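Example for tutorial group B:
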């Protein structure tokens, strides 16, 4: 989801939901439930669940717990009792003390967006694409790998001109069972044709020495929505196309 904040102070989410930004913090908001105080017992007494998200009332350390609870409640509560229908859209809640330049606030909203997908597959697909876009944009235009004449910093002084897009492959015949090969997903334009999230998360010693490291626990969408074994597959299913990775996540 591309974060679009319109002039009427609305954030459009996917699946017809939207959030209203409250600019006047003294504005009275009727019948909304504080997101940090979500409880299954109280939610069921309410006709409709409308959220009040005041970024000054909870901090980053509480994000995961709050989002997991919201996901649980969304699964338990019938769909037509979440939000208020207004024309073709559904008002999901109000946001207070929101800073559009604050990455933590925006990550939290992206996670709320993930929760309100109808199926687990759609949710995983959205999370996967959003995290890949984030990782791509992190590298975009920076040449962090210091490529020069198709040779990256790590491989400087060697004959390798394909960065780290190669791996051992099993051969059926021959005296040696394994062969060091260029990844089959590397296109002629030296681009990845697989959208492999594990490869995107990988950083070699050269990048690590520059402080570029990605930890799954630091990426909110991955940390909240996946179990430890799924996180293992996200991290270590290298050289693998997106479809195959999502399929594995669905059955894990
Ligand atoms: S991650 Fe490391 S090995 Fe891979 S292309 Fe970048 S510098 Fe080279
Ligand atoms: S799957 Fe991995 S190794 Fe293969 S081209 Fe894509 S990024 Fe490179």
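The residue assignment follows.
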């Amino acid at each position: 989801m591309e974060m679009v904040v319109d002039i009427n102070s609305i954030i459009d989410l996917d699946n017809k939901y939207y959030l209203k930004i409250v600019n006047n913090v003294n504005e009275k908001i009727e019948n909304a439930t504080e997101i940090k105080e979500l409880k299954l017992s109280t939610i069921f007494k309410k006709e409709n669940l409308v959220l009040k998200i005041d970024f000054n009332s909870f901090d980053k350390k509480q994000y995961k717990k709050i989002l997991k609870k919201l996901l649980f409640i969304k699964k338990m509560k019938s769909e037509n009792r979440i939000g208020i229908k207004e024309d073709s859209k559904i008002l999901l809640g109000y946001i207070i003390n929101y800073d559009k330049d604050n990455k933590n606030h925006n990550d939290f909203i992206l996670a709320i967006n993930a929760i309100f997908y109808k199926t687990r597959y759609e949710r995983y697909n959205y999370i996967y694409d959003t995290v890949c876009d984030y990782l791509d944009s992190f590298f975009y235009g920076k040449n962090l790998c210091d490529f020069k004449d198709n040779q990256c910093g790590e491989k400087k002084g060697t004959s390798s001109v394909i960065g780290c897009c190669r791996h051992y492959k099993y051969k059926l015949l021959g005296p040696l069972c394994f062969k060091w090969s260029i990844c089959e997903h590397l296109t002629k334009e030296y681009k990845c044709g697989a959208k492999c999230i594990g490869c995107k998360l990988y950083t070699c010693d050269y990048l690590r020495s520059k402080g570029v490291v990605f930890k799954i626990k630091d990426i909110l969408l991955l940390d909240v929505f996946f179990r430890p074994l799924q996180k293992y597959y996200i991290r270590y299913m290298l050289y693998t196309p997106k479809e195959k990775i999502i399929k594995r996540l669905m059955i894990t």
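The mean pLDDT is 90. Compare this with the pattern of hydrophobic and polar residues in the output above.
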